């Protein structure tokens, strides 16, 4: 499933969560508040979501798209699901709320996509 992203693709990070057949990849993109400029903030700390047991048992894969608002101090102020499988959504929200960004002068908005997939 491919969802259109606002702004410019900034980074792709592959994260293996645990030994086993699943992995999660995080992809960040976004815009400055009030415009369509590239996010200039770097992620200082990324937390990978845990692959839910139910999703693993049911072989559920896919992308969860999360819209975030990052406060000037670098913490995630708001996060909401804008797309993806409901069984994967809570794990994505819990993880992205723990992300930390470099400080900036103003709030920044953007999208983070978590791709839950079976390892090959």
List keywords for this structure.
120 residues, mainly beta, TolA/TonB C-terminal domain, two-stranded antiparallel ribbon, 2 helices, 13% helix, disordered N terminus
Query: What is the CATH-assigned architecture?
Result: 2-Layer Sandwich
CATH class: Alpha Beta
Q: What is the percent of helical residues?
A: 10-25%
What is the mean predicted local confidence, pLDDT? 75
Uncertain runs are 1-22, 31-38
Report the major sheet. Answer: 5 strands, antiparallel
Could you give the count of β-strands? Answer: 7
Provide the gyration radius in Å. 14 Å
- The proportion of residues in beta strands is 35-45%
| Succession of helices and strands | EEEHEEHEE
| Main β-sheet, spatial strand arrangement | 1-2-7-4-5
Strand-pairing-aware structural class: mainly beta
Quick one: overall form? elongated
What's the N-to-C terminus distance?
Answer: 18 Å
CATH names the topology as TolA/TonB C-terminal domain
In quaternary terms, these chains amount to single chain
User: Superfamily at the CATH H level?
Assistant: TonB
Sum this structure up briefly.
The protein is built from 2 helices and 7 strands.
Structure in words:
The structure is a single chain. This protein is mainly beta and 120 residues long. It has one domain: TolA/TonB C-terminal domain, CATH 3.30.2420.10. 13% of the residues lie in helices and 43% in strands. The chain has helices spanning 53-57, 86-96, and strands at residues 8-15, 22-32, 43-45, 62-70, 76-83, 100-101, 108-118. A 5-stranded antiparallel sheet has the order 1-2-7-4-5, with helices on one face. A two-stranded antiparallel sheet has the order 3-6. A hairpin with a 6-residue loop joins strand 1 (8-15) and strand 2 (22-32). Residues 1-22 and 31-38 have low confidence and may be disordered.
